[in-house]
């Protein structure tokens, strides 16, 4: 509404108010409103005025829509890093572009997206950001990225000065996390990855000796290590060894210093190690050392998402250097997005459709000359998914009209208790500054972290990735900071599949089917503590196998079919064990009966037999014949009955 129109509307509103005033208005006017007070406007005038005002409102909306349709939203792509292979940066950019191309680079009722890219990936990231921010001071400017912790840290003052929001920065450490409205994270924080890897090592791998690797002097891994120690302590565990080396981005640590640190680490023979080093030379050297040293050559690597940038090439090189064979399951990686081929999520179907469409264009083909590239290269596919999700969230953030009111209004709108649902992937909640009272009633305050899930996968021999069962962790959306998460000690248990007895095998499978439905599902909390694993074995050798299992892995309980010899193994709890033949309750403290014992069954049976009367004959087939017969006779005597005859047979004695 222009200035002239506003004045007309204000004048006519004043006339209506004056004309319809009551006596009180006359008193306030002190006699100067007598003419107006005596004037009663006709009804048609009021209707005409109402029509005029509605027309003005409609016109303003038309002008707003027209302005919106003619607007261009500039998006600055900083999805590259000089120390990262160019193909990964290209994958991020292609993923984002696929999302934008799927909606014809149009959002919010016609507003167009203009993506600004550097003339070359050799252009320093911060210089390009600074230059672009000064050039495009008017209108909305949004950043996608930056890529890398150092770039994000250096970009913060520029983003703050120009009121720019960076969507989905790609970072690897907790140094850049924390409340900052200029950074809009769409991935779980690094502490969330540590939580997922610790949980996986203790509940799925069940290792007794877990190590931790990080590099000092880089603000990369220090905070995560402190949190990891705290989490382990809460559960009653501690790391068996720690590899902590002073390092730098450009230069390897001194060989003698590395070797000294390595020797202390390898001496404990860790079964698994969490690798939280930056993707630099010293981390690569550590990976090679793992395979070359006989004490660690079988150690399982649990790598953070940042390490995946180098893991495939370095691990293949390390295998060749050590003359070792690839072992499936030896490299496990935490990630912030699903694999591109993970069709468990509906969002991945749409991602695949958009990526195929984009890669079939001339622009897409200039980066990757294969419309199925993301299905053949899992690491590159993960980066594409990251970029695509950034585009999906940004397009939803721009659906409102707040961005037309300026950068400050747009930024505030992003933290108005925002949550984004991308098919079946959820990002948020995002919340701005609010008080304790609002927070106590459920408001999310000072939260710019939107990623809620950590995805765990396994490296295969051909460099592909495999989804692992029981690895994914879901962080509560209401808990913005993963550093507040508490892990509970797991109850690791097993069920034997007795391959030498079909009855025992079928019973074990049926029991596992029921028990596994209650097993931890990755939703952290008290409900994520029970873990049940099937183990192949035989009735003859199960006792020895159980003893070995207890010595080398974490083991708290045994469910299902057991042999008498197994019940003699100490240090493990048997929960409602099923024996192949009846067995009396020996009162063992590590045996918990949930089903009725033989003694209880005899008592109930005697109660029933009293009601029907008659002569009683018993045949018992058990290894505890005399004792069991005595218990049966005592139960019968309790109800005034006795056995006419009794026959006790051994387990293998024919009838």
TrEMBL record:
Query: Cross-referenced Gene3D superfamilies, in alphabetical order?
Result: 3.40.50.2300
InterPro entries per UniProt: GRESAG4.1/3_peripasmic_1, GRESAG4.1/3_peripasmic_2, Peripla_BP_I
- Segments traversing the membrane: 44-64
Which segments does the entry list as coiled coil?
none
Classify the source by domain of life. Eukaryota
Query: Residue limits of the Receptor-type adenylate cyclase GRESAG 4.1/3 periplasmic binding protein-like domain?
Result: 193-335, 487-653
The name of this protein is Uncharacterized protein
**Species of the source:** Trypanosoma vivax (strain Y486)
């Amino acid at each position: 509404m222009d200035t002239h129109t506003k004045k007309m509307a204000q004048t006519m509103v004043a006339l209506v108010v004056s004309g319809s005033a009551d006596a009180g208005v006359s008193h306030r006017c002190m006699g100067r409103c007598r003419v107006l007070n005596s004037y009663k406007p006709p009804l048609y005038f009021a209707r005409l005025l109402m029509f005029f005002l509605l027309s003005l409102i409609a016109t303003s909306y038309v002008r707003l829509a027209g302005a919106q349709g003619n607007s261009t939203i500039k998006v600055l792509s900083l999805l590259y890093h000089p120390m990262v292979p160019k193909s990964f940066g290209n994958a991020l950019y292609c993923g984002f572009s696929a999302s934008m191309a799927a909606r014809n680079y149009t959002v919010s009722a016609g507003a167009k997206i203009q993506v600004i890219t550097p003339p070359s990936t050799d252009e320093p990231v911060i210089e390009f950001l600074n230059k672009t921010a000064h050039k495009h001071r008017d209108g909305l400017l949004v950043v996608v990225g930056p890529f890398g912790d150092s770039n994000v840290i250096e970009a913060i003052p520029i983003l703050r000065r120009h009121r720019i929001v960076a969507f989905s920065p790609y970072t690897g450490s907790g140094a850049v996390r924390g409340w900052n409205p200029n950074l809009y994270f769409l991935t779980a924080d690094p502490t969330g990855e540590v939580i997922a890897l610790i949980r996986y090592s203790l509940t799925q791998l069940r290792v007794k000796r877990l190590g931790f690797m990080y590099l000092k002097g880089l603000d990369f891994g220090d905070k995560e290590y402190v949190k990891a120690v705290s989490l382990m302590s809460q559960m009653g565990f501690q790391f068996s060894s720690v590899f902590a080396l002073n390092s730098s981005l450009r230069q390897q640590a001194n060989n003698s210093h590395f070797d000294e640190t390595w020797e202390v680490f390898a001496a404990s023979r860790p079964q698994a190690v969490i690798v939280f080093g930056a993707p630099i030379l010293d981390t690569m050297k550590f990976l090679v050392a793992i395979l070359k040293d006989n004490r660690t050559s079988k150690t399982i690597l649990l790598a953070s998402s940042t390490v995946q940038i180098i893991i495939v090439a370095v691990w293949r090189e390390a295998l060749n250097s050590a003359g070792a064979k690839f072992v499936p399951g030896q490299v496990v990686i935490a990630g912030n997005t699903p694999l591109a081929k993970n069709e468990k999520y509906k969002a991945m179907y749409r991602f695949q459709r958009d990526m195929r469409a984009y890669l079939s264009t001339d622009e897409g083909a200039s980066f990757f000359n294969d419309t199925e590239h993301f299905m053949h290269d899992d690491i590159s596919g993960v980066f594409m998914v990251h970029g695509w999700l950034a585009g999906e969230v940004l397009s939803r953030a721009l659906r409102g009209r707040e961005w037309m009111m300026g950068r400050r209004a747009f930024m505030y709108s992003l933290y108005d208790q925002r949550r984004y649902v991308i098919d079946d992937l959820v990002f948020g909640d995002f919340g701005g500054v609010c008080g304790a009272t609002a927070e106590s009633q459920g408001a999310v305050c000072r939260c710019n972290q939107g990623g809620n899930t950590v995805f765990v996968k396994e490296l295969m021999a051909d460099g592909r990735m495999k989804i692992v069962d029981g690895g994914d962790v879901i962080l509560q959306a209401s808990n913005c900071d993963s550093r507040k998460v508490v892990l509970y000690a797991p109850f690791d248990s097993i069920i034997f599949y007795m391959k030498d007895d079909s009855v025992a095998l079928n019973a074990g499978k049926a029991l596992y089917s029921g028990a596994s439905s209650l097993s931890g599902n990755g939703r952290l909390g008290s409900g994520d503590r029970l873990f049940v694993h099937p183990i192949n074995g035989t009735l003859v050798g199960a006792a020895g196998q159980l003893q070995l299992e207890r010595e080398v892995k974490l083991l708290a309980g045994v469910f299902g079919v057991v042999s008498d010899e197994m019940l003699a193994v100490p240090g493990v709890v048997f929960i409602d064990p099923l024996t192949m033949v009846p067995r009396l309750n020996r009162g063992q403290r590590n045996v918990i009966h949930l089903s009725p014992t033989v003694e209880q069954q005899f008592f109930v049976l005697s109660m029933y037999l009293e009601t029907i009367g008659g002569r009683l004959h018993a045949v018992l087939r058990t290894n505890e014949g005399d004792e069991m017969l005595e218990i049966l006779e005592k139960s019968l005597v309790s109800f005034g009955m006795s056995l006419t005859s009794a026959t006790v047979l051994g387990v293998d004695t024919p009838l």
